[in-house]
């Protein structure tokens, strides 16, 4: 399993390069341009995939060196193997414009990555595991936590499931759901800075994109994204402070 996880970690940047080189079909940017939404992020925001893939490879190498893992790392390996495989599969399917299948895949990858990030962040006495576990997995899970809603919006627009002239009402629902997921996970992960960073990065990317958009409701969407970014940051600070306080009380006891 440890070498499978490493192979799947190495596969993601390769598949990412293929899908964004145009060799498999339209790039993600081209597809996004065809189906504009009020919750899509600016192009620069997607550069976060570079650090994510790099850190996932670091995780893959580090975990492969552990020959006798405990139960927790074994579970993380299973979740990351599935999560990494689904991430690569999503890139291919989305490029081929199999939008419904891509949507199911990205939700599956989110489930696995959140589970892996949770396990990596929860160890004895609430101390986080090694940085090479919780940092890469938290960053990946944080970005996908927002990306799933971007994907939902593109499916809605691509198939005209709801109004594409007045997208703000249903986009606000997606913002609310994204905000709930991010805030709940930030609290449960005790203010995990890397999960928080990825979520805020994505929301600020949405803010930047919508500020420059001419779509109806874009100005409101930009403001909502900025407010959510601030709320996520405040929740992370509060959760981290609570975690530090509990740690001090345990040491004092």
From TrEMBL:
It comes from the Bacteria. Keywords: Membrane, Transmembrane, Transmembrane helix. The chain crosses the membrane at residues 39-62, 74-93, 99-120, 141-162, 168-187, 194-212, 224-244. This is Tryptophan-rich sensory protein. It comes from Thermomonas fusca. The lineage of its organism: Bacteria, Pseudomonadati, Pseudomonadota, Gammaproteobacteria, Lysobacterales.
